[in-house]
Amino acid sequence: MRKREYRDYLNDISESIDDALSFVEGMTFKDFKKDKKTIYAVVRSIEIIGEASGKVPKRVRDKAPDVPWVEMKGMRNKIAHEYF
């Protein structure tokens, strides 16, 4: 297995964003709150986004200051370590 590069993590982020959006497509927030499977799927996508964002090198993150890198990682930590 080859070593993962930062582009792989950026791809993970992009795919997880697309996944989360597709999971909730056509749903109201009220419907979402009642659908445990969708909630778990979106939460998992957020975890992947946060984990992958923490593996993108600082030199790359610095080139995209408009991306909320710290918040993405922070949300992952909040979900992984706290119950909401």
TrEMBL record:
The keyword Ribonucleoprotein does not apply. Keywords: Hydrolase, Nuclease, Nucleotide-binding, Phosphoprotein, Toxin-antitoxin system. GO terms for cellular component: toxin-antitoxin complex. It holds the Pfam family HepT-like. Coiled coil: none annotated. GO terms for molecular function: hydrolase activity; nucleotide binding; RNA nuclease activity. PANTHER family: RNASE MJ1380-RELATED, UPF0331 PROTEIN MJ0127. This is DUF86 domain-containing protein.
